[in-house]
Amino acid sequence: MATLIIQNGETSPPGLALETLRRFGHAIRLVKTWQGETLPDDLVDVDAILSCGGEQSARNDVADSAIESQCALLALAHEAGVPILGLCLGAQILARALGGTVSSLEGGPECGFTEVSLNSVGREDPLFKGIPWKTHQFSWHEDVISALPPGAQALASSRRTDVQAFLVGTSTYGLQYHPEYGAAPLEEHCRRTDAFAASAGGSDALMADLSEHGVNVMRHAERFFESVALFLMPADRIHRGVRHEIEH
Fold first, then answer.
1. In the list 18, 87, 161, 230, which could disulfide-bond 14, CB 3.0-4.6 Å?
2. Which sign, positive or negative, has the C-alpha torsion 31, 215, 217, 133?
3. Per-residue confidence (pLDDT) for residue 248, from 0 to 100
């Protein structure tokens, strides 16, 4: 039995998430879909699922067989009560899988160190305990979750993105931003010179923001993934077939 980590893109490694889950005793199965690796057909050997970012689009109006296959797996896992965490593209795929809508972000990409605010529900959620109500988080996306799945609750927002974090049930979470990026992926993105970087003021501005916010971003991320490992995907109890109950 293993925690399934779906890496959807070369530039979106699981980073701090993978490091923390391994430190807390998780067996990991890493599937690199961007290299053509295939997802499992069922959940027989899957304890939990982490779906990471990527450059593909999960918009409802975009046909992509790989995205649709992942939607099917995530919907099956949610129905079975398998803990799920989607990050950026992974969050969008998760929302689409459960009946939500993913659309283009009006006004172009949201990139760089974005101020994200927890709402009243997010402030009480156990995964965000010990994290300030307003933090800078690293964003890198041009699509957004424009309609939540039925029964979902928004947990956080930013100035341009209404759904920066959401929850469905008690063990299915999505985050639009990138807490999983450690020091190297953050710097690699901040040094980019493409249109996404230009939308955030260019690499010089991004590197300046990295100097200002990077330490806190990673500190909050480490706290978040420790909570994921302790409460959402507790290896000791998952391996015995019993999961922590998370109250909301």
1. 18
2. positive
3. 45
Q: Contact at 8 Å (CB) between 7 and 33?
A: yes
Q: Is the pLDDT reported for residue 247 higher than 70?
A: no
Q: List the structure tokens of 222.
A: 């480490």
Q: Give the residue numbers annotated as catalytic, written as ranges.
A: 88, 178, 180
What pLDDT sits at residue 25? 94
Among the listed residues 97, 10, 11, the one whose alpha carbon sits nearest the alpha carbon of residue 49: 97
Mean pLDDT of 189-205: 96
Q: What is the DSSP string of 164-233?
A: SEEEETTTEEEESS-TT--HHHHHHHHT--SHHHHHTT-HHHHHHHHHHHHHHHHHHHHHHHHHIIIIIS
CA 115, chain centre distance (Å): 16
Q: If we measure between CA atoms, which residue out of 44, 53, 45 comes closest to residue 28?
A: 45
The continuous run of DSSP H or E covering 80 comes out as: helix 65-80
Single-letter code of the amino acid located at 39:
L
Report domain extents, the chain: 2-238
Tell me the C-alpha distance between 105 and 145, whole Å: 9
Count of residues in the chain: 248
| DSSP label of 56 | S
- Say if residue 20 is exposed, middle or buried (CB neighbours under 10 Å; 0-12, 13-18, 19+): buried
Please identify, in words, the CATH class of the domain defined by 2-238: alpha beta
